[in-house]
């Protein structure tokens, strides 16, 4: 999984409105919010890769489900818990990622956790679209 490509896709999916919401929560400008998103996506994708080694069946099932039913924005309306196996997997990776990002950025863990809660549905949507496109090749 290419971190830069995934980061770009997440920022595209977030759009200006989503990025502005993150700016407000973090008290940072657009550049700071983008940097935060990049750092967070990198941490979560690293956790996902680690999980693929330690629990490959769980990761394979999550991607298989994502290939069958791309969410295309529906998940972004429902928040956490609405994205099936992929949502559950990413939600489990959120706490370790939040701790790592809080240490790297110096932001309060509660703030980082809140922003990650906003990013999880976006990540689910992006990964579901990628999985669906991968199955069509």
UniProtKB/TrEMBL annotation:
InterPro entries recorded: DUF937
Name of one Pfam family that matches: DUF937
UniProt protein name: DUF937 domain-containing protein
Organism listed in the record: Streptomyces albiflavescens
UniProt lineage: Bacteria, Bacillati, Actinomycetota, Actinomycetes, Kitasatosporales
